[in-house]
Design goal:
By secondary structure, the protein is α/β, with parallel strands linked by helices. It folds into two domains: 2-43 and 286-404, Aspartate Aminotransferase, domain 1, CATH 3.90.1150; 49-283, Type I PLP-dependent aspartate aminotransferase-like (Major domain) (Aspartate Aminotransferase, domain 2, 3-Layer(aba) Sandwich). The chain contains 14 helices and 15 strands. The strands form four sheets. A seven-stranded mixed sheet has the order 2-10-9-8-7-3-4, sandwiched between helices. α4 (96-107) crosses α9 (251-263) and α12 crosses α13. The chain is globular, with a radius of gyration of 21 Å. Bound molecules: pyridoxal-5'-phosphate. Pyridoxal-5'-phosphate binds at residues 37, 95-97, 121, 167, 171, 199, 201, 231, 233, 239, 242, 244.
């Protein structure tokens, strides 16, 4: 099976597989990478063929896709999530982060408060703070592997908030939110006159047994001001090619956003990502369903291995994507003592922390340190299991040995 044979990505300019980057976060350039959120799987065959066709032409000139991208995205939303959206209600944007940053700039002002649930994907913090907005870091409730919304605290934290930046399903925990959670968030937004932005880049990778509900679809019942972002990038492992789509709850917002992208000359994708996206959305459903089953099996295998063999590490109970947050509180103090008392053994740059260095050196497993997702989360690591089950299980065995050595 394609997923059992991941691609050898060494020497391909992949950020995840470059030694210096791995050394920076894990103190060991030879550690095997389980960090940056892309997968090691070969893309679906129509996507590969589209890339090969373009390479065969040998010219990468200006494209003209007309409305084909939005049409392909609209059909995908209907087939995958049951959301009926007209192509003209969708807008292309050059990547998820660009789209969110643009919307923050356009629809909020300097000094506005933006609430972001935490642990959070670090660029959310950076985008909020760099643009002069005030970050309201709202910790999700957490207990023994379970992350959830604490509605009472959420309501309290909403005081004076102008925008909610939500991530659904959530990175790094993998939580898939229920309709009731989403309605709650939308209702909070409506009550406080706050815009609800939802980053749904991981939404096509929900495991069997769970269902993702797009914020824009649920909002039909809530009537909040909402912007829903989704993308083919994580879904089809084409994340290095920046492409995302946006849905707005009002045509005024949509027009303002489009106008702004045109002013910035950022309204046209490259020929490469356009071709890959159309190939993916038109042909990728079967591959995607197979992938979701594979990721679900990887997640279940990780969970049962840790429960049985290494209970010091607790996997978050998320049910989406290929990343999980692992709670290592049980060994944190010992790992900290080990790392701090042997600085020569754990060199590295600013990108890592105690646990990423500990596992990098002692298990040869490079993961994102929990501190990357907020200071509160230093006792966690994020593990990327978007690779073969064999590699995942071998990495867990090495992690268990490292834990036992403490
Ligand atoms: C939640 C989330 N949003 C956005 C991105 C990046 O999206 P893009 O590369 O399209 O800007 C990532 C990548 O890891 C992510 O996890």
């Amino acid at each position: 099976m394609i997923f059992d044979n991941p691609v050898d990505r060494k020497g391909t300019n992949s950020v995840k597989w470059t030694k210096e980057n791995i050394a920076n976060i894990s103190s060991n350039g030879d550690a095997e990478p389980f960090w940056v959120a892309d997968m090691d799987f070969q893309v679906e065959e129509h996507i590969k063929a589209a890339g090969e066709r373009l390479a065969g032409v040998g010219v990468y000139g200006y494209p003209s896709f007309g409305s084909r991208l939005e049409e392909a995205a609209s059909s995908w939303l209907r087939a995958k999530h049951g959301w009926d959206v007209k192509p003209e209600d969708l807008t292309f944007t050059m990547g998820m982060l660009h789209g969110i940053a643009s919307a923050i700039d356009l629809f909020t002002r300097k000094g506005d408060r933006i609430l972001v649930p935490s642990p959070m994907y670090r660029p959310f913090r950076e985008m909020t703070e760099r643009s002069g907005r005030i970050l309201v870091e709202h910790d999700l409730a957490y207990e023994n592997g379970r992350f959830s919304l604490d509605r009472e605290r959420f309501s309290r934290d909403m005081e004076g908030v102008r925008c909610i930046l939500f991530c659904s399903p959530q990175n790094p925990s993998g939580i898939v939110f229920s309709e009731s959670d989403l309605l709650f968030v939308l209702e909070e937004g409506r009550k406080h006159g706050a815009l609800v932005m939802s980053d749904e880049i991981h939404s096509d990778l929900v495991h069997p047994g769970s269902k993702h509900l797009p914020m824009g679809m649920v909002n039909a019942k809530a009537g909040a001001q909402a912007i829903t972002f989704f993308a083919p990038s994580k879904t089809f492992n084409i994340a290095g090619e920046h492409m995302a789509f946006v849905h707005f709850s009002s045509s005024d917002m949509k027009e303002a956003f489009r106008d702004r992208e045109e002013t910035m000359r950022l309204y046209e994708p490259s020929i490469t990502i356009g071709e890959l996206t159309i190939a993916a959305y038109e042909n990728g459903l079967e591959y995607n369903e197979e992938l979701c089953r594979y990721l679900g099996r990887n997640a279940a295998a990780i969970r049962s291995y840790l429960e049985a063999e290494c209970p010091e590490l607790i996997m978050a109970d998320g049910n989406a994507s290929f990343v999980t947050f692992i709670d290592a509180s049980a060994i944190y103090s010992k790992a900290e003592k080990e790392v701090l008392s042997h600085p020569e053994k754990y060199p590295g740059g600013s990108g890592g922390g105690i646990l990423s260095r500990f596992f990098g050196v002692n298990a040869s497993v490079a993961m994102n340190d929990g501190t990357w997702f907020g200071k509160e989360w230093k006792k966690f690591v994020r593990f990327n299991y978007g690779t073969s089950t064999e590699r995942v299980m071998a990495a867990l065995e090495r992690m268990k040995k490292a834990v036992d050595s403490l």
